[in-house]
Design brief:
Number of strands: 18
Biased composition (Basic residues): 30-46, 74-92
Order of helices and strands: HEHEEEHEEEEEHEEEHEEEEEE
Region (Disordered): 1-93
Helix content: 25-40%
Pfam family, one: LCCL
Shape: elongated
Low-confidence stretches: 87-91
Biased composition (Acidic residues): 1-11, 53-71
Protein name: LCCL domain-containing protein
Number of helices: 5
Length: 303
């Protein structure tokens, strides 16, 4: 009996051990499965995060490219504005009543200025009579000589080199000073206006000469684009051959509109070796290389 009890006890012990092992194995299996799920979840998270990172990098690259394009466009707009301002300043410059020619005429052609009203009461000094010293007020010199009045207006200026002395005088409500010392001088003149046809060229109206002279302000009629392009040629871009139609060149350059016409200024310049063709504002311009003897001109808006 005792032997049978011992045998049954050993069997029970063995059963409990097997049961514990089975339970431990099941727990281990559950733990392994859990850890596997955790690893796969982490891998999925990494992949998702990696995907998000790639998307974010792509977005950042797209934003950088967009900013770069916007920056380029902004720079282009600024360059265009600077070019427009330079084109306006080169021929027609807005000045104040006290602006001196010495301060204004630096590195730009000193041709045509627009003076404001009320310069008679300004303080800018004028040195000389007829020939004015470079430190003189541009507009008050124009008042003194009589090319403009106190309502302001346009005037042409010509540099005249050195003068030995400058004479004082009182004219048109402006007292000028005298100076008995040589200095650079300028003269002033009225701006003349010329109404032209669509076929008129700079070579016919105002050819280039040395020393340079002032061309009249030009009034272009409407609808010059409808003219025969063989009779009203446009040769060049920005700088045009003086054989070109003035008004069609102005439309090509964008300084006036074809449907309205309007006032423009031109500046004859020396010959160019090459004129570049282009299509602008509805007009095709021609190209030309090494033209014999022909001169050129630039065209400016009147603002």
């Amino acid at each position: 009996m005792e032997g049978e009890r011992e045998e049954e006890g050993e069997k029970g012990e063995e059963g409990r051990r097997r049961k514990r092992k089975r339970e431990e194995g099941e727990r281990g299996g559950r733990e392994r499965r859990r850890s596997k799920r955790r690893r796969s979840k982490r891998r999925r998270g990494w992949r998702e995060r990696a995907g998000e990172g790639e998307e974010e990098e792509e977005k950042e690259e797209e934003e950088e490219e967009k900013e770069e394009e916007e920056g380029k466009e902004t720079r282009r707009r600024r360059r265009r504005k600077r070019r427009r301002r330079r084109r306006r300043r080169r021929k027609t410059q807005l000045v104040t009543c006290d602006t001196k020619l010495r301060d204004q005429c630096k590195g730009t052609p000193c041709n045509r200025y627009e003076c404001p009203a009320g310069c008679l009461d300004a303080k800018g000094k004028v040195v000389g009579t007829v020939y004015y010293e470079m430190q003189s007020s541009i507009c008050r010199a124009g008042l003194h000589y009589g090319v403009i009045d106190n309502d302001g207006g346009w005037m042409d200026v010509s540099r005249q080199g050195r003068q030995e002395f400058f004479i004082k005088s009182s004219k048109n409500g402006v007292q000028s000073l005298g100076k008995y010392q040589s200095a650079n001088a300028f003269t002033v003149s009225k701006v003349t206006v010329k109404v032209v046809t669509c076929e008129m060229t700079v070579a016919q109206l105002c050819p280039y000469q040395k020393p340079a002279r002032h061309c009249p302000r030009i009034y272009c009629p409407r609808n010059c684009m409808q003219e025969n392009p063989q009779l009203s040629r446009v040769i060049g871009t920005r700088i045009y051959s003086d054989r070109s139609s003035i008004c069609r060149s102005a439309v090509h350059a964008g300084v006036i509109k074809d449907e309205s016409g309007g006032y423009i200024d031109v500046m004859p310049v020396d010959n160019r070796r090459q004129y570049v063709a282009s299509y602008q504002n509805g007009i095709y311009s021609e190209s030309l290389r090494n033209p014999p003897g022909a001169k050129a001109f630039r065209v400016f808006a009147v603002i």
